Amino acid sequence: MSVAQEAATIPAPRTPSVRKKGSNLEKWGWIYMRASGVLLIVLIFGHLFVNLMTGEGIHQIDFAFVAGKLASPFWQWWDVLMLWLALIHGANGMRTIVNDYVGNATVRKILIGSLWASAGFLILLGTLVVFTFDPCLGVTESSSLWDVCQSA
């Protein structure tokens, strides 16, 4: 083989490593990203439609509107599902970016651990806020909500 032919030869691809037994987390992460993306489109556009297109549109959004929505179990679960899917979807996307661009294994593990810890914390906090929201908490006599909260 001449030098010119050798330079034009494409090197052989890396030999694939032997696949470990068990679940393929990368495959399930890939599937999750597609499924959650489709579901998030429905949830987000439904959220935007109800908040911006029905009733008085953007003018209806105030504390009372949010309190009314969060009093309904349907909207609580809608918002929690949107929250969980969005945070896990975003953290998984960031995990993919970290895996692609961070070469040091220790730094990669720290960053990925931080991603999942922050996503878990925000999921926990957001879920607690949605299910324990009380519009009358801390309302005093000088508040405009005083009469509403006293009648409830």
Automatic annotation (TrEMBL):
Keywords: Heme, Iron, Membrane, Metal-binding, Transmembrane, Transmembrane helix. GO terms for molecular function: metal ion binding. It is found in: Membrane. InterPro entries: SQR/QFR_C/D, SuccDH_FuR_B_TM-su. Residues 1-21 are annotated as: Disordered. Pfam families: Sdh_cyt (PF01127). CDD domains: SQR_TypeA_SdhD_like. GO terms for cellular component: membrane. The keyword Metal-binding applies. The chain crosses the membrane at residues 29-50, 75-98, 110-133. Gene3D superfamilies: Fumarate reductase/succinate dehydrogenase, transmembrane subunit. It comes from the Bacteria. This is Succinate dehydrogenase.
